[in-house]
Amino acid sequence: MDILKDYLAKTAGGELNREMLTFVANIDMVARQNPTIAKTIVQELIDQRSHLKLIASENFCSLPVQSAMGNLLTDKYAEGYAGNRFYAGCDNVDEIERIASKEACDLFGAQHAYVQPHSGADANLVAFWAILRKHVQTPALEKFGEKNLLNITNEQWDEIRAEMGNQKLLGMDLYSGGHLTHGYRHNASAQMFDCYNYHVDKETGLLDYDNLRQMLHEVKPLIFLIGFSAYPGNIDYAILKQYADEVGAVMMVDMAHFAGLVAGGALSGKYNPVAYADICTTTTHKTLRGPRGGMVLCTEAYAEYVDKGCPHVIGGPLPHVMAAKAIAFKEANTPEFKTYAHKIIENSKHLAASLVEKGIGVQTGTTENHIVLVDVAALGLTGRQAENALRECGLTLNRNTLPFDAHGPWYTSGLRLGTPATTTLGMGKEEMAEIADIIATVLKSVKPSLDKKGNVSKARYTIDEGVKAASIERIKGILSKFVLYPEIDTDFFAKYL
Ligand code: DSN
Fold first, then answer.
1. Distance from the CA of 313 to the center of ligand 1, in angstroms?
2. Is 254 a catalytic residue?
3. How do residues 387-396 score in pLDDT, each as one tens digit?
């Protein structure tokens, strides 16, 4: 088996397809070492190509982003930050980190960017510790007349630790669309802080600003954390910053989900958190369409604390991923990306409206961002049943809790749909209507089964086989017009798989 040689022989004399050649060369190299791993890479492309991706937190990054990620840069340790490393030989990584940070600042209009976090959860930890150090540890050290933690006594250290561990964080409840890292009890954030949660309004499914203001005044948190992974509304950061200032809270926004919408100007003015927050955190792989990773943006006042992500929380940065971030930020700073960001919202609004038209319950009846929350409990299903049934029919999406969900986070009452990936593929209004029709048809044909004890199961179900077969064909039809990475011919690999 010589994949590269076979490809070169097959294409000799033809037009050069650089993307395919690069992909083949990479797969060839991996296959020589471990054919099974090579197979899974090709198979993942085939899978992602043959299922419609509606996972709101996923996307398809560009091939240049992928190439920047897959190389020798991974071999370099570069703890510290650009120009201040704990290792020798970091000149190139310094350059990469400086470029990525500058691209990020240019893109978001941020005062400072820290591009090292490996994920959104890491970025949140970096931000938490930066805030704690600036507002608790540094003043405590000053009180002891010291600058260096290593010079204080054990008793003084205990005092600082106790104070650091007793700070209040006010974040959005997981069931209302908040994230695990915003103070959910099963996450370290809930152990680091004295956590309080705000909820969406039961009637509207949206944030109640008066209630938020009241909670801020009652709790007086050190950190007022805004941001979500399942919320279909807009958030007015201008007014929330005023409320945060009234109680002296640090306003932190986790914009992991919607950073691409901010970058592309689809969320602007009062809806742009970077213009108001003290610190914003994000992932780089969702709507932003970059490599899997995280980032912190902040005002100058927090820069020196944020830059100490290592040693506080993370170890060595991933230079290859920082390189890919630099590529992605530049891609996002283009008119094409602006169009893309606006189109994501347009598509999700069409998707929501088409679902409602088909009699499927959508939280708030619409959406203002890339997320559509579907209520499947109204159809007698759990999110788990709906998620699995739709996957069988060719759609990949995830179940999600709805506000005040009676089924809990494992089974859930809802589905979370998102349009970043389908929009990247070029889909529009027509496809959204078709997708909504497929989803509605499938969901209406799914029935819960009985479990072994004769109770209605929350996991098992039956599906109409005719509906299933027809849906698979319809999804195939859509995807045949919007091919993922069309430069890459997966058929070529058939004989090696
Ligand atoms: N897992 C991400 C999401 O799907 O929203 C957030 O961590």
1. 20
2. yes
3. 999 999 999 9
